[in-house]
Design a protein that fits this description.
about 270 residues; alpha/beta; Rossmann fold; ProC C-terminal domain-like fold; 2 domains; eight-stranded mixed beta sheet; about 45% helix; about 15% strand
């Protein structure tokens, strides 16, 4: 039997637990969550045990994975008591900005640690998570961590943890860029005379539909863009602005660089 210990059951932790149960990613789950309202929906489930503190974890429970899903600012207080359990399990952290070295210091250098950077679409099973493991993590432990994060959507790996700030800038913060794109498209449509309701609906459905088409199509995004663009047509006129020297490409590059650099600053404290 595979056991998962989930520490923290907020929005992301709860979404992961829903996905694990739906996909039967493990046989037994123990959740440590002091706020009772966060775990009410699991009260009547046979495979989930909810406790308020580490001292309440059932004596017969052995965790194969410990998933740390608490806020980064509370990690220094929450994590250390789990050192004993971490010696025989892989610790999977989804706390932004908390490096692998933090857990190695808290649990010991021989502890298996996987750091993951998911994003908010994980709440609907359509997230993007990038994982990085330390040298103490075995192949089967990496496979378990990947299985657990696949409940939230797509998964990939990096070997260099230093790239995690770039991952955060692209996929971690990326949903906010898309939401802002929807906002700005709607505002531009309204400025052209569309009603606020029609502009908002058109922007939302266009972005959602184009994203799903890009996901399912055999062609890459550049080819899909070209397929939509008739020479000298309306789309070409708009792309002339968006693809100009001061257009979306340079703007997005500056935005992601700013996000990456801020991540590095936060990591230094």
């Amino acid at each position: 039997m595979t056991g998962v210990l989930l520490v923290g059951c907020g929005k992301m932790g709860g979404a992961l637990l829903d996905g694990w149960r739906a996909n039967k990613a493990a046989d037994r789950f123990v959740v440590v969550e002091p706020a009772p309202g966060a775990t009410e929906r699991f009260a009547a489930t046979s495979d989930v045990t909810v406790v308020a503190a580490i001292s309440d974890i059932p004596a017969d429970f052995a965790a194969d994975a410990i998933v740390m899903a608490v806020k980064p600012q509370t990690m220094a207080e929450v994590a250390p008591p789990y050192a004993g359990r971490a010696s025989s399990a892989v610790t999977l952290s989804i706390a932004a900005g908390t490096p692998i070295s933090f857990f190695e210091q808290a649990f010991g250098e021989d502890a298996a640690i996987v750091r993951a950077m998911p994003n908010t679409p994980a709440a609907i099973g359509r997230g993007m998570s990038v994982l990085c493991a330390n040298a103490a993590t075995s192949g089967p432990q990496k496979a378990l961590a990947e299985t657990l994060m696949q409940a939230a959507g797509a998964v990939d790996w990096i070997d260099d943890e230093g790239l995690m700030d770039a991952v955060t800038a692209l996929s971690g913060s990326g949903p906010a860029y898309v939401f802002h794109l929807i906002e700005t498209m709607a505002a531009a449509g309204e400025a052209l005379g569309l009603s606020p309701e029609l502009a908002a609906k058109s922007a939302l459905e266009t972005v959602a539909g184009a994203g799903e088409l890009a996901r399912q199509a055999a062609e890459d995004p550049a080819t899909l863009r070209q397929n939509v663009t008739s020479p000298g047509g309306t789309t070409a006129a708009a792309l002339g602005v968006l693809m100009g020297e001061d257009g979306l490409g340079p703007l997005m590059a500056r935005a992601l660089t700013a996000a990456r650099d801020r991540g590095r600053e936060l990591a230094k404290g």
